[in-house]
Queue: 2 jobs
Job 1
Amino acid sequence: MITRRFAVLLAIGLPLPALLPAPWLAVAGVLGLAAGLALIDLAVAGALADVRLRRDGDRTVWLGNTAGTTLTVTNAGARSIRLRLRDSWVPSAGAGTLAHDVELAPGAEHVVTTTLTPTRHGDRPAVRVTLRSYGPLGFAYRQRRRAWNEQVTPAWTLRVLPRFPSRRILPEKLARIRVLDGTVVTRGRGHGTEFDVLREYVIGDDVRSIDWRASARHHDVVVRTWRPERDRRVICVLDTGRTSAVRIGDAPRLDASIDAALLLSVLAARADDRVDLIALDSAVRTRVEGGGHRTQLPRLIDAMASLEPALAETDFALLARELLRRDRKRSLVVIFTALDTAPMIEGLLPVLPRLAARHKVIVAGVRDPAVARLALLDAEATATDVHTAAAAERVLHERDRVRDVLARSGATVVDADAGTFAGQVADVYLLLKASGRL
């Protein structure tokens, strides 16, 4: 293939023969000379078959952070080679500089670094490497595209883990877990909690916690201390249907649900509870269950990273069948979904009484602050603003009605803005844990 330099040469050289007595013959001579130079340049250019590529770098990165990958280019041939290399990634990988100029002597290596700042969570693959080998004159080049399904280069995919902004409140929630877990012992019997140890009575203890038989044996007043039950089961249900694609601020609603589910999973794992995950819309997209405490959280985070909203209605009847068929032990089921009227009335409400009869159910939905802002009017409001505010007020009223119906059906409802949503879900879990209602 010819280069821009060759095209510039023709643009300058072709008008000159028009001044000579035999212009067409001169034009043919110029074209022949240029073509000969290009062919010689192409023949002298290094062979692309002698180029070897090797990948290395980061495999995972949190959304909002930066990752780096390296591409080692090796010249295995006997001639020097001038390369123009383009390392292409999917657009959402946020790759930096894609094109690089490389000159390699025989047997030499060169490392090309690509900086990645992803804009979405999930798998972000490298697409292809395009190589151009230029001749010494720069008039022509050889080109080859090496896709990752070929044997020449290894496949490389960067897994982008979901954003976790609620990590900032994690220390405060973990401190409350330590209080519940016995670092600061809770006093009183507490319904449904496990017996911990006996200790001497101190002023302020609940007299109902006195163990009279143990007091008689020790010749002193002793009380029983209790701790929250461990090894409970927490099931996080992520709704990946069409309502999860609605943007709350600058991110889909699903991202806020994933953030809250991550915070809840970390707290439950630290409290020695078992955490499972179900993500579904019209079908179950992923299910994570079982595993030890060391592998539990990495598996959950890895599964959440690949979730994307689907343009499909969520089948809550499918969720009920999955939970009632497999999960016979009483569990805490946290359903992250949208508190919209139609999906709730037609989807979740018909199956909620059956779920609440066997499990403790929390329905958590993040609010769109834009709706609340639209419901406000100022002194300069127009007729259009009044109609918009009336529609927004109706949406808020229907949301309140849905929340009341869910509560009467046996569910605990969390309805909060994106900034406080994850923290409020965690607070409900900690409250249930402290009162022994899991």
Job 2
Amino acid sequence: MSEPLLRGLARMRSHLLDSDALVRAVASGRQKSGTPQWRRVELRYVDLKAGRHLQVTSYDEQQAHTANHAVGEPRQPSPARDAVDALLDEPFGNWHVETTTQSHQLRVTKKGEALVHTSDRSEALEASRGHDRGKERLLPEDDPLFRELGLTDAQGRLKPSRQAKYRQVEEFLRLLDTTVVEAVEKGHLRRPTEAEPLRVVDLGCGNAYLTFAAHRYLSHVRSLPVAITGVDVKEQSREHNSAVAGRLGADASFVVGTIADAQVDPAPEVVLALHACDTATDEALARAVAWGAPVVLAAPCCHHDVAAQLRRAPTPSPYAALTRHGILRERFADTLTDALRASLMRLAGYKVDVVQFVESQHTPRNTLLRATRTGSPVRGGTLRTEYDDLVATWGLTPRLAVLLGQDQQQDQQDAGA
């Protein structure tokens, strides 16, 4: 580890151990020298009955793990100090540390050097030390957004009948926040400016709950300039959503059209497609690829297309037990559809995670494909072979493959052979 990097990490350590001034810290990315144990880690101090603790939330590819570490006496060994030192030893590529008066950013270059930037705040922040994770919200219940969308009453209290929708919004914002922040930190997504705001499109937006939530969170909490467009086939939705945008003062526009044909100009950088039915999700993913969108978040709904193909085609040996019973065949079709979508997006040059959107008790449609464009399309190799073998075994033609021209590419390869 180079001397400049050691000095930079030492500066971060002093801020991380300041239990009075630290507001929040995030470690993410990786160094060229190795991969950290966690994909992302968030740190903050909380006040418990036993005293102040450092709360560390560590994210793997599937879920978050939270642990609290006692602070102890100043300049004395403590669980909090041990936790900070262990995280600083991990080869994270980025550290972003927010204190009440300053913002600190450390980025490790490909050569292992440290680039450190510190900026002063025009106004001091207040550090929240509440520890009730169940009540810690990305957007508070009394935010005007939720009153406008009908999720809360006039006093800002959540309506019992709208709890599932509120939970869905919260979980979506957590995934959106992680994905956008990481994409910006790693250089896959440009940092937006007032002159060139982040361009977001929500394909099949419906009543635009998540469209407005995304705008509200990114603009008001993350302080990112955002221009968002919602697309839906219903003129009624456009009129309703445009009126809501006007009352909220949101930089949001709405157009009428199908996911496949709607005119969106300039091309968006973040594409959302949440619960688009059946192959409409494939159309949304194909449009994102055609736009070259750096970030895509898609939560599929029903999966009729592949399920119908499975019913028509003979089941390959020895997998008859997977399709013999209707309910198992439908569930398998769901899994197979999203696995093929993830593979096709990887072939298109995206890094893809398939994660849980919300818990199954809130909605049975709880899978989300999170894709970040990291490179050029893949023309061969293991990824291509894996995909080709899978569709050949089951005799499938995924709709997304047709839209991306991948089925034609395979036909050409077979003809050349």
